[in-house]
Amino acid sequence: MAFLAGVDAGKTSLLLLTLNATVGDGPVAVADLDVGQPELCPPTTFALAEVRSPSYRLSSANAVNIYPYGYSTPAYHPPRFALLVRRHLGHLPERGRVLMNLDGWVDGEQAALLKAEMVRALRPTDVVAIDAELPGELREACEEVGAEVHRVERPPTVHRRDREERRLARSMLYASALRGASIRTEPASGVTFYPPDSDNPIQDPERYLLETVRELDARSLELGLELPEGFGTEPDLGSAGIGLLSYLTDQGDALVGLALLLGFSRERNSVRLLTNRQGPIRHLRLGTVALRYRPAIEEVGTVKSLLPPL
Predict the structure, then answer these.
(1) How many other C-beta atoms can be found within 10 angstroms of the C-beta atom of residue 182?
(2) Which ranges in the chain belong to alpha helices (H)?
(3) Beta-strand (E) ranges in 116-254?
(4) Across residues 116-139, what is the average pLDDT?
(5) Residue 9 burial by CB count (10 A; 0-12/13-18/19+): exposed, middle or buried?
(6) Rounded distance, CA 291 to CA 297, Å?
């Protein structure tokens, strides 16, 4: 069963209600695909959990696997999101008892096309649309896979958060995922760096980070940043207490930990990371979101130069 709705429309509450009503009959798989405001994983990632008992909060379930997407909304790169969902969760129709929390991007043709792709990839038996219409392409996808559509109204008691409230909520999730983090310096040659939108390694990760540094320097007034003198000339975010959200992964691209990429030292051929990961670091997928880490973890914003062209 897939739950479809806009932002703050009650998807998670209805999914949790359905989960608690059905989990007594056996384990239920829950796929959290709401990369902007997830419950099972940090923002910009998606996850799969197996739930065996009722719960008051979906966030209390332990994710079996978490996968990096790298963007705060599927709207930034719909084809990449669709590819990753097919790659990592395409087996879900074989599991039978599955609840899917789709993301809140529902307006416009591109959003409808992506949701149709999700339906075809995940093949839900039912689609619950909360205060949302199903455009032609999405309706056709539901008919193709035999999904029954249930339309329900948005609960009047659900609080509709503004953009700042959602930013602060994401900041809290990032802080939770990075709790206990410390700065590590690693040989840059021992780490393979990947962009968010490709499985091919980045040939010049220093230049990738320098683009981020230069954009934040140019947008400092807009973002309310106080930057040190000389900022913007070196691939170093850490001097300003900022890092680029990145993802430590295994060879199958499953998440093993979060990190903030702080900077590179050309002289020492090293990379500085803020992370709570204790094991070796071999694969680092870079993201598109900048975070402050001093005095506390806080989302700065999306680095626009790292987004794919429209």
Answers:
(1) 9
(2) 11-22, 78-89, 109-122, 136-145, 163-177, 205-218, 220-223
(3) 126-130, 148-152, 182-187, 192-194, 242-249
(4) 92
(5) buried
(6) 7
Amino acid at 304: K
Helix (H, G, I), strand (E, B) or coil at 22: helix
- The tokens describing 177, both together, are 């995922």
pLDDT tens digits, one per residue of 18-50: 999 999 999 999 999 999 999 999 999 999 999
207-229 in b/e form (b: 16+ CB < 10 A) is ebbbebbebbeebeeeeebebee
Domain spans, the chain: 2-152, 163-306
Inter-residue contact 241 to 212 (CB < 8 Å): no
The backbone torsions φ and ψ at residue 31, rounded to the nearest 5 degrees and listed phi first, read -105, 120
SS3 percent helix, strand, coil of the chain, rounded to 5, is: 35, 30, 40
Label residues 78-102 b or e (16+ Cβ within 10 Å = b).
bebbbebbeebbeebeeeebbbbbb
The amino acid sitting at 267 is E
Residue with tokens 């209390």: 60
Q: Give the H or E element holding residue 80.
A: helix 78-89
* pLDDT per position as a tens digit, 82-125: 999 999 999 998 888 999 999 989 889 999 999 999 999 999 99
pLDDT digits (tens, 9 = 90+) for 194-210: 999 999 999 999 999 99
Rounded Cα–Cα distance for residues 174 and 246 (Å) = 11
User: 27, 51 in Cβ contact below 8 A?
Assistant: yes
Give the predicted TM-score (pTM) of the model. 0.95
- CATH code at 2-152: 3.40.50.300
Both tokens of 272, joined, read: 């500085």
